[in-house]
Amino acid sequence: MDRPALTDALRQRDTVLRAFVGADGRLASIPTRISKRLVVLDLVAQDFELGETYPEAQVNEILRRRHPDHAALRRYLVEEGFLDRRDGTYWRCGGTVEIG
Fold this sequence. Notes:
- The protein is mainly alpha-helical.
- It has a three-stranded antiparallel sheet.
- α1 crosses α3 (34-45) and α4 crosses α5.
- It has helices spanning 3-11, 13-20, 34-45, 56-64, 70-79, and strands spanning 53-55, 83-86, 89-92.
- The longest helix is centred in the middle third of the chain and has 12 residues, at 34-45.
- The protein has five helices and three strands; from the N terminus they run αααβααββ.
């Protein structure tokens, strides 16, 4: 993933999240602009614990809570380096981490 693009995207975080995420935490839509999509994907990546592995069915269940097109979200998370996968198992490998 292009790290400068993520840094730029995170500067717009609050505005982007207000535009794309409802009060219930569900996505109104998946942004098409990459800078905005990175912000949304970073938020969605927070649904996965660092150091945990997830079978694909569980990943789909978690993502459906955010948006009905869980397959697109899963693909974007992998393509942009927020999740990685091997043999049907996924794990979080990117995104911001809250400390403290």
